[in-house]
Amino acid sequence: MHRAKVRLEDRGLVECPRWHDGELWFADWTSGEILALSEHGTVRVATTAKAPPLSFDFGPQGDMYVVASRASHLLRFNGSGLEEFAELGANGWNEIVIDPHGRIYVNGPAILLIHPDGTVETQAEGFQFPNGMALSPDGRTLVCAESWARRLTSFDVAADGQLSRRRVWADLPGPPDGICFDAEGAIWYADVPNAYCRRVREGGELLDEVKLDRGAFACMLGGPDRTTLYITAARWFGMDKMDQMGGTGQLLSVEVETAGAGWPHG
């Protein structure tokens, strides 16, 4: 049984962990901030965008792109604040993952492909609350968590980034939230109501589990050798009670055997 180490506590609803340049980055939806936690335990605020859900990822040149749910644009961090990068249309956008060529996938009412020049193409629609996304180590498969359907859904990724051959990657016992791939092609997924992170193979075979005392919202394999599983966790009271989650948010870590791979890139 894994024992998770608390790395940071007394935050709000924490989400979207990313390992970048030797720091663990994450979003605090309660405060509307994107922050970075150093290996020494110090926390700094990178930017604010008070429109949760709030997700972000880093491009191959280190640029940070941000999805704020109620914004109709994909945003880019310019070093001091957020600027509009691409028109998404409507709102309700949720998760983001960026491939090694700088192509950006955003989900919500649909999965969108945003090219490096800012052009946007719709790839798929009709999801039951799309949530975390990840690209396989070879870059040929994109997996999207469908929380309400309790499944991971996958697509083939063509050389130009287009998605095809939609299928079920794994049916799950609970609603998946944030996800990440490891070097063996397995996926770690976070589950809020069941308060755990689980590692599964394609098809759903359970390989490992980390149990928590509160909801697990997302997970990311990071650290110098990508064998540290970082978990964002908090007590969930509903989107309309975000202020009540203040102080319940934690960043935790567990050492695992198989290193992270694919994208988001740790």
Rg computed from alpha carbons, rounded to a whole number of angstroms: 17 Å
Structural class: mainly beta
How large is the count of helical segments?
0
Strand proportion, as a percent range, falls in over 45%
Secondary-structure element pattern, one letter each: EEEEEEEEEEEEEEEEEEEEEEEE
Helix content: under 10%
Distance between the termini: 24 Å
Which residue ranges are poorly predicted, with pLDDT under 50 across at least 5 consecutive positions? none
Please tell me the overall pLDDT. 94
Strand order of the largest sheet: 1-24-23-22
Largest sheet: 4 strands, antiparallel
Which overall shape is indicated by the principal axes computed on the Cα atoms?
Answer: globular
Give me the count of strands.
24
Can you put this structure into words, describing what you see?
- By secondary structure, the chain is mainly β.
- The chain is 0% helix and 53% strand.
- The protein has no helices and 24 strands.
- The chain has strands at 5-11, 14-20, 23-28, 33-37, 43-48, 54-58, 64-68, 73-77, 82-87, 96-98, 104-107, 110-114, 120-125, 130-135, 141-146, 151-157, 163-171, 176-181, 187-191, 196-200, 206-211, 215-222, 228-234, 249-255.
- A four-stranded antiparallel sheet has the order 1-24-23-22, with no helix packed on it.
- Strand 15 (141-146) and strand 16 form a beta hairpin.
- The radius of gyration is 17 Å and the shape is globular.
- The relative contact order is 0.17.
